[in-house]
Write a structure and sequence with these properties.
mainly alpha
Length: 66
C-alpha cells in the first residue's frame, strides 16, 4: 500500500489516478471477505514501505489495514 491517503498514494506510486487507492482498498476488502466467507486458510499481507512522503501516515495505514 505504502500510503493511507489518496494524495500520498499517488505521490509514492507515481500515478495520476487520484482514486486508485479506493479501488485497491476495495479489492483487498473483497478478497479478505471471500477468504473469510469460504473458510479458506489464506492470508493477506498489507505492506507499508517507509518513505519521506508517507512516514507521518503509519498510524492511519494501520487503521486502514484493520
Amino acid at each position: 500500500m505504502d500510503a493511507a491517503i489518496p494524495q500520498t498514494y499517488r505521490k509514492v506510486k507515481n500515478i495520476k489516478n487520484k482514486n486508485l487507492i479506493y479501488k485497491v482498498t476495495s479489492n483487498i476488502s473483497k478478497l479478505t471477505k471471500y477468504i473469510r466467507d469460504n473458510d479458506l486458510k489464506n492470508d493477506v499481507c498489507f505492506k507499508f514501505l517507509l518513505h519521506p512522503y508517507n512516514a507521518n501516515e503509519v498510524y492511519d495505514a494501520v487503521k486502514l489495514a484493520k
